Amino acid sequence: MHMWGHGSQYRKGPDSLKGTQPSAMLRLPCFCCAPGCKHNIDHPRARPLKDFRTLQTHYKRKHGIKPYMCRKCDKTFAVKGDWRTHEKNCGKIWYCLCGSDFKHKRSLKDHIKAFGHGHGAVHIDCMQEDEAASEIEHDGDSSM
């Protein structure tokens, strides 16, 4: 399944997963075992998760322990990939040509898409040291 992201030649549907999980597991809707969860089968409007891997990740994020902690802001995470992504972007600020600033790159992209003409990302050259780069990102207002 990891290889699917590397090109269409690897995407052969559920058949390419044979041997990794029983085929019956691929077709079964997966429900969370935590009481009160909207993905629990006893919930009035239960919504099944698409596969077992999604169920595992859901359970870790929503109900599990959070062993990974950001070294900058002490926020905790249950999934290693979430922690890596957060830590890579923690403390960064993205700026628009209009002067608005955003904590998340996705928010800046949505802003540019919504407002169109006259809006775009302000390019800030990245420096080698993380501390110097974060100073530029936080003090970027004075350079505009």
Overall outline:
extended
The helix-strand sequence is HHEEHEEHH
Helix content: 25-40%
Radius of gyration from CA coordinates: 21 Å
What percentage of amino acids are in beta strands? 5-15%
- Poorly predicted parts: 125-144
Oligomer: single chain
**Number of beta strands:** 4
Largest sheet: 2 strands, antiparallel
What is the averaged pLDDT score?
77
Class based on secondary structure composition and strand pairing: mainly alpha
Q: How are the strands of the biggest sheet laid out side by side? A: 1-2
Distinct helical segment count: 5
The end-to-end span amounts to 45 Å
Structure description:
This protein has helices at 23-27, 52-63, 80-89, 105-115, 130-138, and strands at 68-69, 76-77, 94-95, 101-102. The protein is extended. It is mainly α and 144 residues long. The strands form two sheets. It has a two-stranded antiparallel ribbon. Strands 3-4 form a two-stranded antiparallel ribbon.
Summarize, please:
By secondary structure, this protein is mostly helical. About 35% of the residues lie in helices and about 5% in strands.
Descriptive labels:
single chain, 144 residues, mainly alpha, two-stranded antiparallel ribbon, 5 helices, 4 strands, 33% helix, disordered C terminus
How would you summarize the topology of this molecule?
Blueprint: H1 23-27, H2 52-63, E1 68-69, E2 76-77, H3 80-89, E3 94-95, E4 101-102, H4 105-115, H5 130-138
Antiparallel strand pairs: 1-2, 3-4
